Amino acid sequence: MPAREEYWRRTRRLTLMLLVVWVLVTYVVSWFARDLNSVVVLGFPLGFYMAAQGSLFVYVAIVWYYCRAMNRLDGEFKVDGN
Amino acid sequence: MSFRMTRLHRYYGLYTAGFVLLVIALAVLEEHGMPARWIGYAFLFFTIAMYAFIGIMSRTSDVSEYYVAGRRIPAMFNGMATGADWMSAASFIGLAGTLYLSGYQGLAYVLGWTGGFVLVALLLAPYLRRFGEYTIPDFLGARYGGNTVRLVGVAAAILASFVYVVAQIYGVGVITSRFVSLQFEIGVFVGLAGILVCSFLGGMRAVTWTQVAQYVILIIAYITPVAILSYKVTGVPVPQLVYGQVLQEVTRLENKLFDLPQEVEARHLFQVRAEMYAEKIVRLPHSLNEERQVLAERINQLKASDAQMKDIVAVERQRRDLPHDVDQARIRWESLMFASAARASPPTHHAEAFPADSPDKRWQLQVNFLTLVFCLTIGTAALPHVLMRYYTTPTVKEARDSVFWSLCFILLLYVTAPAYAVFAKYEVFTHLAEIPIAKLPGWVAAWGKVGLITIEDINGDGILQLAELTLNPDVIVLATPEIAGMPYVISGLVAAGALAAALSTADGLLLTIAGSLSHDVYYRIMQPQASAQLRLVISKSVLLLTAVLAAMLAAQKPGTILSMVAWAFSIAASAFFPALVLGIFWKRANRQGAVAGMLVGLCLTLYYLVRVEFDSIPWLGIGGLQMEPWFGIQSTSAGVFGVVAGAATIVLVSLATSAPPLEIQQFVERIRSARPRR
């Protein structure tokens, strides 16, 4: 497989994987917020905590991981991040 | 994401230190009797002078500098600039209040406005940067070919941005008139000057460096008051960490307060009043005539019994203040009815998700929460003034990193906003609820005077029930310094922060509008041979014109325009998101599909918005528009239909027509894979 296609295939797989995490954290967690609220973390009901802080930290982690993985991919395929 | 100390870091470090010193100096001066008004002036003058200084230092007459800051903005600074660009007057002043009023439901905004940046990072920013031109319609034009798709893009960009810019300038007017007691209209034009000193002289380059400076002020101003309040309440100055415990206390107080007999009674009295208005509206026009007659009779009685003149005058004024005709009566009584009904409705627990008394209604709330989050995330990832910022980094790698930094800087504010709401609620429950009205803290009366707090002792017991208190959402952030008993200098700081938030967003939006009109319409479509110099002249003229037009509109205090701001997300989402993302990830998408999809998405969203929100459009002579919302989804989430229909249209129409030409397919390959374009 040409390098270019392999690069794109792996970018796509990474993107898809992270998008699934994003959907879980944003939509699935919110849908079950009522049930999650019965658990208490740091004084917060969990459903409330996720929407106010928890999910936001997961977003940062997703973007951070994406940057790191893409930089590695760039290195592997010897491109200069351009 | 490496961190190197550069000259830029030193400059902005010094700048931040200088700003903190300014705040301290003003605090000391206030101790020595400097009047509050002068502190307001000092903040207004020093911050705008600073922005003007940066604007003049970065003035430019180079096209690339003007549109994309010469693509030399390092990732972290671009992140900060995006933060300021993104966080508007509404985020700064309004969000905490929305969270106060709607508890868990309001968190849809927190989730949506941060979650959208994940989509920006994964689906858009790196590819737009690799494409590396100037505007978002530029990308659409290059990817799909032809001027139609570019023009549709320009129209959508202006539609989403112009209303938004009017709201920012309006915000500047409100802030200056409230804190510096300038007249509202003068405040609007002071704001206009503050915006133009940057964007007019130096375009994107000046706006970027000013936005970095504005971010610093904005975030200091947002966090300081609530940190001090948190320290006073819990002993820990990190509100984001400790408000969980305060939330538990709030829940305990809610359980104690909500069902007190006097609370129930107050709510019942408001319910009775709402029903009275409802009955009056049904009986129009008779009810209005009756009311006139009753007052006329009373005046005659008073006159006959030779009562005091001032009593007669008072009743006559009542008669004069009656609605003049049936339409006016209906509008006025409806709003009174809704206000009373709102006060009569049983309060909800702050942390409770989807509070409802039947599974049906709960399902409705869940669906509306999720669709709103959907529209806000997709809209965030489609607003041109944000996406444009990722053209300004030196490389694709830095574009990716800069989304990470953007999200971090934005997060600081959005993680703090729910803490504001909870602390404010705690203060209200402990120091306002069930307290004799004569003994309420001073800030209640102070903000009552400007109409942001209303109190009505409906059951006449001289004690404040929760149902008798109405807070305007804006008051939460604006009054927190006083709630925590801080000196005026902190209020001035908050005003400076709010001003920074409004100005920075307005700058970004103006550049988007001017760029779309001058670059896409004039240069790309009308005059491709235009010289660089002429293009800049056109761009600056358009910018000036747009800014003045927006300021003139804002000076009219247009209520409907302000409520339309929430729509910008749905409009941008349905017009841009499917065309941009499919354009990158689906090679088969072609011009016909994109044009049809963008139009279908945009028109469906507008159709839904208008028909759910309005019953008639007087200046078009259309009436009887109102329709039942589909699946009970509110108009702010209209984009959910537009995005889905737009994406489906692009796919169907593209498949029904021929594949895009080879050079377009090569273009897609090029923006996907990591190979230098040049």
In short:
The complex is a heterodimer of chains A (82) and B (678). Chain A is mostly helical and 82 residues long.
Outline the structure in words.
The complex is a heterodimer of chains A (82) and B (678). Chain A is mostly helical. In chain A, a hairpin with a 2-residue loop joins strand 1 (40-41) and strand 2 (44-45). Helix content of chain A is 78%, strand content 5%. Chain A is built from 3 helices and 2 strands, in the order H-H-E-E-H. Chain A has one domain (3-76). Chain B is an all-alpha fold and 678 residues long. Chain B has helices at residues 7-31, 36-57, 63-68, 75-86, 89-102, 107-131, 136-144, 147-179, 184-234, 239-257, 261-282, 286-304, 309-320, 326-344, 359-380, 384-387, 396-431, 442-449, 475-483, 488-526, 532-555, 559-564, 567-585, 591-613, 639-656, 662-672; strands at residues 453-455, 469-471. Chain B is globular, with a radius of gyration of 27 Å. The mean pLDDT of chain B is 87. At the A-B interface, helix 1, strand 2 and helix 3 of A face helix 6, helix 10, helix 15 and helix 17 of B.
